[in-house]
């Protein structure tokens, strides 16, 4: 893809799943990648696979809910690669103690709301605020945020996650509206059911069957499906795409 080779990208949440797949795809296109994650062993494994394939990547332990940690993630990237050209936000707290307790409005405790907002919304605010000055200084760059098909409002459960993802959609558009004319592109992806490591471990057969019943496709999603789209949006191939939220989910939702 045009405009990836030799450029540097941060993948905030690159230890597993979509983040790992995107890290490897970007590196395969010749980009330098910082694989950031609270799961440092997973991030290191991703970086090692990239190195074994002939690419260049570093693993950095960081926490989306911690301001200092986010600043250090950006600082390590600049120190290692000498520049920064884009950001992919994909981190979230998918632990059973958080997403597993995220149900309907009357069933979801406030601590789940607070944790989800702190990681999946304010975490993205932190990373975007940290990278934007550097992208603006160099005359432009690209940000891609991970939302969810749940932000479309058709999931009766996961109220905190889905409301947070709807806010991510607006954050993404806000960046495009304010800094698009300065060369900043800000887009988002709204994945359907993607069979990454966490989803496979959950092995929720009822959820998988429900998705396939609604979908217009022959299979469930794979991290590579998102990796190719995100890499495209970060590349110069997508230089006339800005402020858009792309649903990638086997047409389980049909939308304009």
Automatic annotation (TrEMBL):
SUPFAM superfamilies: NAD(P)-binding Rossmann-fold domains. CDD domains: SDR_c (cd05233). Keywords: Oxidoreductase. It comes from the Bacteria. Belongs to the short-chain dehydrogenases/reductases (SDR) family. This is Glucose 1-dehydrogenase.
